Amino acid sequence: MATSTIILKTEALRKTFKVGFWGRQVTALEGLDLEVRQGEVFGFLGPNGAGKTTTLKILMGLIYPTSGQAWLFGKPIGDRDSKARLGFLPESPYFYDYLTGAEFLRFYGDLFGLSVSVVNRRIGELLELVGMTHARDLQLRKFSKGMLQRIGIAQALINDPELVVLDEPMSGLDPIGRKEIRDLILRLKEEGKTIFFSSHILHDAEMLCDRVSILVKGRLVAMGRVSDLIGADSTHSIEVLVEGLGSDGLAQVKPLTEKVTVTGDRALLILKGQQSVNEVLERIRTAKAKLISLTPHNSSLEDLFIRQVREQRGEE
Fold first, then answer.
1. Where exactly are the structural domains of the chain?
2. What local confidence, expressed as pLDDT, does residue 2 receive?
3. Residue 21: how many CB atoms within 10 A of its CB?
4. Contact 257, 270 (CB under 8 A)
5. Which of 105, 144, 167, 179 shows the smallest number of beta carbons within 10 Å?
């Protein structure tokens, strides 16, 4: 990370809503403290209803917090100059679908007050960046979900922002669409931009993020680097696939395993951690069997996420 400058910060952020006929108070956010540093990809994670979108709406100035404070680029949210330095893609945005890709981007460029020459240049650059040059003159109503997400990210970049805020950018996409958005986020990071995105798709966040936070029921329950959160020594089991082990060889390795599954001439050995790996491999060699694969299974962000959600919900 090139710098540790904090460009997004919240302090004791709280938001309550009144719902129902009797105006029952519901707390969407409770004492949220966040810091996002320049140049990083920051994942804002949580199950549906955790308060992620509420937080983003507060940061974008679309709703007001009940209490607490938030800053963008060191200035209170709502500052006009700060807003000019960020780009935003909401979850499931609605776009006027009779505009073409180029017309859509030109509309947003005009909203930012960009000159005609700058807008024309940015349209070409952004369509190429998001892989949508072929759709320049295609109406948005003919776009697929993945294409709409990519053109939506392009509009969030029309003003060449320093901070890009994306609300559930992978939601509803097929595996190809998710990969395209992941690649695009990594390209934006290479260009020096800061990306702050919310998601409940943990695999994508684990691949992309420098740091993550986990929000459950409006409360921040974890924040930091993925490697720090799940632990440095995160291997919890190892799978060893062997061929030609035979009954004698199987009898030799079985005491060192948690589970053995035999299919034909192959045996799948499940080992608990790394302690017995060397001895199992030695016994496989002694039995003159063939090692097909050895696959460690590490603790993941998903394991941490599920554990935190269950703890907050009071589940076993």
1. 6-230, 235-298
2. 42
3. 5
4. yes
5. 144
Q: Between these two residues, 20 and 28, which has the higher pLDDT value? A: 28
- Closest by alpha carbon to 164, among 116, 130, 115? 130
Q: Are strands 211-216 and 41-45 parallel, antiparallel or unpaired?
A: parallel
Order across the sheet with 163-167: list the strands. 86-89, 163-167, 194-199, 41-45, 211-216, 219-224
Report d(CA 180, CA 13) in Å as an integer: 33
Q: Side by side, which strands form the sheet with 235-243?
A: 259-263, 266-271, 235-243, 290-298
Q: Whole-angstrom Cα distance, residue 256 to residue 291?
A: 16
| pLDDT digit string, tens, across residues 106-137 | 999 999 999 999 999 999 999 998 889 999 99
Cα of 76 vs its chain's centroid, Å: 26
- DSSP for 218-254 reads TEEEEEE-HHHHH-SS-EEEEEEEEES-HHHHHHHHG
pLDDT band at 172 (very low <50, low <70, confident <90, very high): confident
Global confidence as pTM: 0.76
- Alpha helix locations (H) across the chain? 52-59, 80-83, 101-111, 116-129, 145-156, 175-190, 202-208, 226-230, 246-253, 277-286, 301-313
What CATH architecture applies to the domain 235-298? Answer: 2-Layer Sandwich (3.30)
User: In this predicted model, what pLDDT tens digit does every residue of 47-89 receive, in sequence order?
Assistant: 888 899 999 999 999 999 999 999 999 999 988 889 899 999 9
DSSP-based three-state secondary structure for 153 = helix
